[in-house]
Amino acid sequence: MSLENAGRAILLVAAGILLCAMMVLTVVDVVGRYLLSAPVPGAFEATEIMLALAIFAGLPIVTARGEHVSVRLVVDHLPPWLQRGLGILGDVMVALLLAGAAWLLYRRGETLSEFGDATVLLRIPLAPVAFALMALSAVAAIVAVIRVVQPGVPRS
Amino acid sequence: MGLEPWVPGLIALLVLILAGIPIAFAMGLVGTVGLVLLLGPRGAFSIVGNTLFDTGLSYTLSVVPLFILMGNLVTRAGLSEKLYAACYAWLGARRGGLPMATALACGGFSAVCGSSLATAATIGKVALPSMRQYGTSDSLAAGVIAAGGTLGILIPPSVILVIYGVTTGQNISALFIAGLIPGLLGIVGYLIAVRVTCALDPAAAARGPKTTLREKLVATLGVSGILLLFVVVIGGIYAGIFTATEAAGVGAFGALIMAIASGRLTAKGFVEALAETASTTTMMFTILAGALVFANFVNVAGLPAALTNFLNAAELSPLMVLLAILLVYLVLGMVLESLSMILLTVPIFAPIVAGLGYDLIWFGILVVVMTEISLITPPVGLNVFVLKSVMPDVPLGAIFKGVVPFILADIVRVLLLLAVPGLALWLPSLMG
User: Fold this and answer.
1) Nearest chain A Cα to B279, which residue?
2) What is the nearest CA distance from B379 to chain A, expressed in angstroms?
3) N or C terminus of chain B with fewer C-beta within 10 Å?
4) CB atoms within 10 A of CB A141
5) Of B384, B342, B385, B344, the residue nearest B365 (C-alpha)
6) Cβ contact (<8 Å) for A68 and B275?
């Protein structure tokens, strides 16, 4: 339980810092360009990478809370056992797809590292980014599996 | 002609969505399985893998979390009270004045917040107690907030317009500016809807106490912050000083400063705003990635070609086709949540609409207005449920009843936009 809370806190702090950094970087870039004629070099690239990391950092949290958007129109009128069954089916699919995503990102990371791909201006290597996204997807997949086996998880 | 592969695909998707499987994953699953069947695993996995990686690493899309953050900070800056106070000072003592002030305040809040649900929830918190105190019927009060809140996705900034722009390759700045006049029309339409409701049922709203000119002016000064933020962000886009992403960053930063200056933003509140932004962003991008995979599948499976052939064979006039598409949005909007609806349909419809010679900026505004309507139509009008959570003692039926005059106003607005495309396209045509 405490591991769960610690994990959630770490991911939230990471995502929050990334969002703040994106905001500040944009402001500094704009101010630099208009007032000092000195834009931040590569702000564009850094923003892209921070965005990707922030999105994937949220994946385990959103998955754990069962906050992925779904249509409840029909389901809410079904008998409780069927509702629970469909909920579990949903979590299984989420787990499978997140695991699949992790695998695809791993393969992407391998290709990127093979060719040593990096961003144009800042030369940020892209393979570690893909591996980080893979890790976050994998954690989210594990979270979804835990939801399947753990009874009494919140099903909004 | 055999069964085309997109038909079972669409059916499978519909079944999964109605079974309550998270929409993003239903789209991703059907899309991936379909692509594997059509292209083999190698090609399919390369498409899906690229989609995942490239959707995350997109500079244009970084505008989304930044505008969401701006909205989350603005809702914590106490601006809604000042905004409502100002609208109330000018309109409150008229007949139907409180609900009219509410509609106006919703419009004003939409100018700094890109989300309809947040606008309805935030203005609802300040406007409801006041409307109830001065004898506005629950039905009208709920209706005007639910409907007024929908303006959030039309009056810039708008998260939905960003997503539309990215999906169709249209300029996001131009889309934002195109939303201005239709948004103002929306406010006017809602004001008229309130007046008509009050004329038909004088018991629906009593007048609020009169305010002096001095009170009016003081209250108006209170909204200078919102006005400044709007002028910097949207004015900056209009004048070509900022790209949409830069405007979002500057807007979020401005909102943060205003929230700190208001003395209402605690450290805890700031962390909450960031956490909310993070999870909303993740939810939206999950849907986006799922929808892109699914769109790839239906394209490979030949749905666009089949639709075009069908339309050619049916020999409908372009206007009929457009009306049919808008009707699809009305129906889909009753079941689907807005982002999924737009992401599922726009990649299919936009090429057809463009092929008929229509402007895609104009179409985007039409789609967003249809989406606004979907937010307040039963059975799953999300804004109505937001209201239900703010006022749990009012039955859902009463809220839906209160929304009816505003849906009529929206339909008139769609017809106006269809008749006079310039309402959307004139302002963007003046941009530098």
Assistant:
1) A58
2) 8
3) N
4) 23
5) B342
6) no
Instruction: Enumerate residues 22 to 81 of chain A having a beta carbon within 8 A of any beta carbon in chain B.
Output: 22-27, 29-30, 34, 44, 47-52, 54-59, 61-62, 65, 67-75
How far is B372 from B160, CA to CA, in rounded Å? 11
Per-residue pLDDT tens digits for B266-313: 999 999 999 999 999 999 999 999 999 999 999 899 888 888 888 888
Nearest chain A residue to B56 by CA: give it: A52
Q: Please say whether the beta carbons of B159 and B166 come within 8 A.
A: no
Task: Give the C-alpha separation, B252 to B245, whole Å.
Answer: 11
Give B-chain residues touching A70 at CB under 8 angstroms: 17, 20-23
In angstroms, the CA B109 to CA B71 distance is 9
* Separation in Å, CA A35 to CA A28, B255, B432: 10, 21, 21
Do the Cβ atoms of B34 and B297 come closer than 8 Å? yes
Dihedral angle of Cα B195, B197, B199, B203, to the nearest 10 degrees? -120
Q: Tokens in use for B185? A: 């029309």
| Percent of chain B surpassing pLDDT 90 | 73
Per residue in B237-265, pLDDT tens? 999 898 999 999 999 999 999 999 988 89
For A93, name the nearest residue in chain B, comparing CA atoms only. Answer: B25
Predicted complex ipTM: 0.94
